[in-house]
Amino acid sequence: MHQPPKWADRFLSWYCNPDLLEEIQGDAYELFDSRVSKEGISVARRKFIWDVIRFCRWSNIKRTTTQNKTLNNTAMIGNYFKTGMRNLVKDKVTSTISVLGLALAVGTAITSYIFVNFFLDMDNFHSKRDRIYQVINTVNAQGQNQQWSDVPITMEASLKDITGVEALTRIEYGSGNMRFNDLVFNEFIYFSDPEFLKIFDFPIEIGSREVLNDKSQIFLSKRVAVKYFGDEDPIGKQVSIKYDDGTIYNYFIGGVFEKFPNGASFAPPVLISIESYFDQNPDIRNDWSHLTDGLFLTLAANANITDVESQFPPMVKLQNDSKAEMQSKSFELMSMNDVSLNNHKIIGSVIGGGHPAGRILLSVIAVLLLILACANYVNISVSSSAKRLKEIAMRKVLGGTRNMVIKQFLIENVIICLIAIGVGVLISYFLFLPGFNSLLPIVIPFSFSSVLNMGLFFGVLLVFVGLASGLYPAFYISKFQAITIFRGNQKFGQKSLFSRILLTLQFVIAFFTIVTSFVFTDVSMQLVNADWGYEAEDVITVPINNNQVYTALHDKLLENPKVKAVSGSFGHIGPYNRISVVKHAETELQSNIYMTDENYLDVLDLKLLEGRYFSSKGDVNNAVVSQRLVRKMKWTEPLKSHFYYDSVRYEVIGVVEDFATDNYYHEAFPVAFIPKFETGFNYLTMKTTEGDKTAAMEDVKATWKEIAPDDPFEGIYQTKVMDDFYDENRSNVILISSIAGITLFLACLGLYGLVTFNINRRMKEFSVRKVLGANLSAIVGLINRDYVWILTIAFVIGAPLGVINMGSMVKSIYPDAPGVTAYPIVIAILLMVIAFAITVGGQIYRVSKKNPADNLRTE
Amino acid sequence: MKGEYIGELEELVLLTVGALYQEAYGVAVMEEIERQTGRNLNISAIHSVLKRLEAKNLVKSEMGGATKERGGRRKRIFNLTNLGKKALDESMQVRSQLYNQIPQISFNFS
What is the ipTM, given to two decimal places? Predict the structure, then answer.
């Protein structure tokens, strides 16, 4: 039997009015058949096509009449909401799980968005933002263009007279020890022109924006003001600042800023007129070779950037003539917005929110999690719709079209998405963002740059999540024919290869991140518990900046009964690890050099392996080295060896065991101790009697105040020298673990969805098996078989990847770190098995409890 | 009135429908016309003429029984209505009336 061309036939049924289709198609077929016998197949086919085309007339074409559909719409939409809510409430476990899964991903997305938004929108409180420009210095460095924030300090004078330039300010960084009565701290200082306060809108609590015209008046940030004055009114109070060169200047407090807005990427802790800076350094004022840290200006509204920039070339020449080692190509004006966005490319940038890598990484993670969560949701909602087949069939029988069923499921989905977004906001607000902030040095508020921005974000989020998670289930479910459902032989859900691959992939990722996080945690724990190689307990370290202070403090402390021993050093283990080169024959080694007096070994309890420590002034040219130095120099008899440091020959008289000097981010350096007696120390280290370190610290502090009232006391416990490293490490561990936790949770959700799906599909089979005498364990085996495979495959791929990844990562982050042990992998397996058991266990319980008769009786 | 006026093709199809009594459907009408007059019409043209005639109440239609060669599809069978019969009668009458008025002389043209 010959058939007419399929496409033409299908085209006919597509355009033709269903009422006319039968007779038209019938006639076309009849003609085709008679032509086949009379004129041959190819002519018949050609003529059939021609007929189909000829039939395509206005009167035959299908036209929809919208009349019927719109009639009942509003009532039905109300009904959709009602059934949607009922379904949510009816199956609380499934609803909770699917909402929670989406909400977690949404929470991550919201948090990342706020994070990214925050950094892209920094410094927006400056109202003149659009007119503020920075002069950027493009420097030719070995044939490559570098953009520098630094420009000649005297350039300000040349720019002043250019038409279009309204106001100018330089920012010159400085620091000094600020003192008020007996409160002394080291402060970071901005030296700026008085216009600073007019260009930038840092909110001011007290004081006028004209104050800086008087160079003896200074501005403080709220934090600094509170530190010195507490609740007192600081205005008019006199403070003194001792600069690095030892000179002391007196200033009056002229104003205090409000607490700086969260989005401020730069803000002056102490703001002083640049005139005061020129008082200290009078030669610099007209020196084209001295670069200041930043030069900002506002342009008049009608000013032309190119016109202003055209005045720059002579200045470039002036700079290049006076500074041979740094040749500028040009100066350009860059708007504040551009500087913010490109600050990672600008060397020494004053403003901006840092490198975009973190933002990109975070966005990628958020989008990935969203996709995973949506995929899971699809699985779960398809599987849970098995219970609703009859409802769908009934709707269709009662006149519901496929479109209406699709609409119904999409509306239900929107309800779930709305709830998920609500929960996601809560998760982000109460959990993720505070957690995130606790790991970061800054505080990011839960806010958006504008209402429009927020509305757009949530709108896009809702549409994305709603469609990504809802479209497939809606189309899949609505496709069922009412008659097959009622007849009871609706084949529900083939074994979907796609969802299996998806699940396997998810578990690969889950295994990968879990193993990664545990390896990382493992290594970090080992580092935390690692022996430093010396006794840090009961040791106090005080940075010193001149000899008189050292001698006075040293003598005073020796009288203190709580102090067992005192040592001076230039460079100190932990806070100041000097790196220099030692030479022996042809070998040059980067090493930590500590110049210490004879007590250093005893104070820190370093373990001497061979020889002795230097004891008296006779040891001027003798040195003590660490094992690592001996190893790297390949000395066989270290005590008979020597090395050169700073062109001086030192004989090795002792070897100490290796110890930890620094964070573990780089390979530990070899160490050499070089004698230095009585003067030139920058650290004083003392050992207190056991358990007295807190009391001793108080004593030292008091003594310090008598001896050096103009300098801040910055003594620390030696046990704290690596706290920065440990804090950072802890933050990283928490971050990685959280991501691993979320991935695991989402993967389990996916598993749950698939297991439910398949158990629902095979419920009848299980019932028959149970009736025929299968015990529970057989059924458990049956259910688990597939998933155990998925898990095993995922483990075989994911875990080694995690170990390999972390192995190399750990090596690159902590070169000296101990090796990866087996226990992260064991824990990962354990965790997975537990998660798996919980996920699948509930479903198995359901199967075991269900009376098989209930399932078999339904037909 | 336009509604009562029937064109040449309409008249032909109407006649055929009457002639095929109880057997008149698209393909049959087309083949009958081709057999009787030699005019080769496309099936879609027949369909639209039939639809027009039905709209003018000259024919009525109903779905017939299924046949084998049409893949089990039914035919739409057309029948003359009284109005259709009357229209044919009128047009025949007009023709024969006019025909009878032709003077005999005109036949002697040879």
Answer: 0.86
